[in-house]
Design a protein that fits this description.
Blueprint: E1 3-7, E2 12-15, H1 20-31, E3 37-40, H2 46-57, E4 61-65, E5 68-72, E6 82-85, H3 90-103, E7 107-110, H4 123-129, E8 133-134, E9 142-145, E10 152-156, H5 161-170, E11 178-183, H6 189-201, E12 206-208, E13 212-215, E14 227-228, H7 233-245, E15 250-253, H8 266-273, E16 276-279, E17 284-287, E18 295-297, H9 305-312, E19 318-322, H10 334-344, E20 348-351, E21 356-359, E22 367-370, H11 375-384, E23 392-395, H12 407-413, E24 417-420
Parallel strand pairs: 2-15, 3-14, 6-7, 10-11, 18-19, 22-23
Antiparallel strand pairs: 1-23, 1-24, 3-5, 4-5, 7-9, 8-9, 11-13, 12-13, 15-17, 16-17, 19-21, 20-21
Length: about 425
């Protein structure tokens, strides 16, 4: 689908959609529990649907109705080969692969889009070293069998926090104790903290050391009260950034100001840029100020880089976005595609090894953003239209369905006009 934006969003108030990062975690914990439970989640998207499909394929029964997931847990042992369709969701694959190994299921993981080429190493090697048989790296589907063994697992901290989270879901199910050793610098630690919090909600405890996590075996997932999925700061950041660069104020509601979500840091970044940010109990209002270039360390917040780059493109002076190398293994090589997208609209942006260097201009021209089936790029195009003198066309705009199916409806609710090009 190709969308043409002829009028940028004007401002107003919008509610944050449910956090897919938290939804993945809570649904997995619920499916591994000893009894039925419920998860309140105001919206679904393609990635959440992928995790639900995989859990159902393992024998859970997950039904969504009126904003509530009702989950009947997986029953073990699991007999026969199971087909797990991950779609294009990297989170689903990386979380579910260790879980399947811990359950001893014979399974095929089917992957769409760029997912088969996205890295699984060193998680792949660690699972193989601890008792599992996995088909050769890069195959699609990926066949998995055998039982995971407890023990010592070593993971680098700078490749994917999802590898570590996947092990945290799996290792408590094993008969023995395990330890996850972290080598190098830990990046995206807030996502690890979210996993530990979700596990705690279901009675599973992870002990944290300086460079390690200790996981006791023979733990039992036990649901307590119904749990709620928070509003999503990653997607809310698009609207908050629009308030920072636009002419009207923009308010996002349904936000937990005490969240563990790392992308809450968008508020700090916008204030450093010079935007006016007003915090409420569960909402944030952002208005444009005198924007100036800043220095950003993106190690813990890589999903914010596209929208931060858009803000930087119209901030006076130079912005440096550093430590963003992991963007190269997302749905696209986002260092490359963000540079191409903003350049096509007239921005002065340079792609370095793991960084972006952006020299701000007063306005951008407009043009075409090739989203390359990447939801963050499609949203970037809609945000950038706010500072463009001419219309913005976005190809593969339906990529927003991955995380935010109602994105363009909300864009229209904020005063923008985005029409499908036939």
């Amino acid at each position: 689908m190709t969308i043409k934006i002829t009028k940028p969003l004007q401002g107003g108030t919008i509610g944050a959609i449910a956090s897919k990062s938290q939804a993945h975690r809570l649904l997995i914990c619920a499916a591994l529990s000893s009894k039925e439970s419920q998860v309140n989640c105001s919206e679904k998207n393609n990635d959440i649907n992928a995790t639900v499909r995989c859990l159902n394929a393992l024998g859970a029964l997950i039904i969504y109705e009126s904003g509530v997931f009702s989950i009947s847990p997986i029953k073990t042992p699991i007999r026969g080969e199971r087909i797990l369709d991950c779609g294009e969701s990297g989170s689903t694959l990386r979380f579910m692969l260790p879980v399947v190994c811990a359950l001893g299921a014979d399974a095929q993981f089917r992957m769409g889009g760029r997912l088969p080429s996205r890295p699984l190493s060193p998680l792949y090697e660690e699972l193989m070293a601890h008792g599992c048989a996995i088909s050769p790296y890069g195959m699609n589907p990926l066949h998995v069998s055998g039982y995971l063994k407890s023990g010592r697992y070593t993971m680098p901290g700078n490749i994917s926090s999802q590898f570590i989270s996947g092990l945290m879901f799996a290792l408590p199910l094993l008969s023995g104790d395990s330890m996850i050793m972290i080598t190098g610098d830990m990046e995206s630690k807030p996502y690890i903290d979210m996993t530990i919090s979700a596990l705690k909600d279901f009675g599973v405890v992870i002990s944290q050391g300086r460079h390690s996590y200790t996981v006791k075996g023979k733990q039992h997932y036990t649901p307590g009260k119904t749990v709620d999925v928070e509003g999503d700061w990653s997607n809310a950041a698009v609207w908050l950034c629009a308030g920072a660069v636009g002419s009207g104020e923009l308010t996002v509601t349904n936000l937990n100001m005490n969240t563990l979500q790392g992308d809450r840091k968008i508020l700090d970044f916008l204030e450093c840029f010079g935007a006016r940010v007003n915090r409420g109990d569960d909402c944030v209002t952002v208005m444009r100020g005198e924007l100036r270039g800043i220095d950003i360390d993106a190690a813990d917040t890589p999903d914010l880089v596209p929208v931060l780059a858009a803000v930087a493109s119209v901030a006076k002076g130079t912005t440096f976005i550093r430590n963003a190398g992991r963007l190269r293994i997302k749905e696209t090589d986002r260092l490359q595609t963000v540079t191409a997208a903003l350049s096509s609209l007239g921005a002065d942006i340079i792609e370095a090894k793991d960084d972006l260097i952006i020299n701000g201009r007063s306005r951008l021209n407009g043009g075409t953003v090739v989203a390359s089936n990447d939801h963050r790029l499609a949203m970037l195009g809609a945000l950038a239209a706010t500072v463009c003198d001419n219309p913005v066309t976005i190809t593969d705009a339906d990529a927003v369905n991955k995380s935010y199916p109602e994105f363009f409806s909300d864009f229209a609710a904020l005063g923008g006009i985005a029409e499908e090009v036939i």
